[in-house]
Specification:
This protein is mainly alpha-helical. Helices cover 60% and strands 5% of the residues. The protein is built from four helices and two strands; from the N terminus they run ββαααα. The chain has a two-stranded antiparallel ribbon with strand order 1-2. Strand 1 and strand 2 form a beta hairpin. The longest helix has 28 residues. The chain starts with a strand and ends with a helix.
Length: 110
């Protein structure tokens, strides 16, 4: 740690430090439409494919509605704000993972 003028500069040491678990590395991988969709996302992609040109609207709509449902469910069972944050995060993650697949489906109709 060194002090420069009025800001604190922190440098990572080369001692091995924190190792990211493989499961977390797998979750952090950006989505890629050139490979098959993850198994948990496949049913949504198939539903959206049936919508044809409107696949992104249908896919994001289903994910958003599902997120709201789980957020309300978690609030009702007593998890409150924590449940809402978990449901919102999971919805955002699902939308991030689904975006290239939905874009490929929609681009077939351009």
């Amino acid at each position: 740690v060194a002090r420069r003028a009025d800001r604190l500069v922190v440098r990572a040491e080369e001692d091995g430090g924190f190792e990211v678990p493989d499961a977390l590395k797998e979750l952090m991988k950006p989505p890629d439409a050139s490979v098959a969709a993850p198994a948990w996302l496949e049913p949504l992609i198939k539903l959206a494919e049936e919508a044809g040109e409107s696949a992104p609207v249908v896919g994001y709509g289903i994910m958003g509605a599902t997120g709201v449902f789980f957020a309300l469910f978690f609030a009702i069972i007593g998890l409150g704000g924590f449940g809402f944050i978990v449901a919102s995060g999971a919805t955002g993650y699902a939308m991030w993972q689904a975006s290239p697949y939905l874009s490929v489906i929609a681009s077939k109709f351009d």
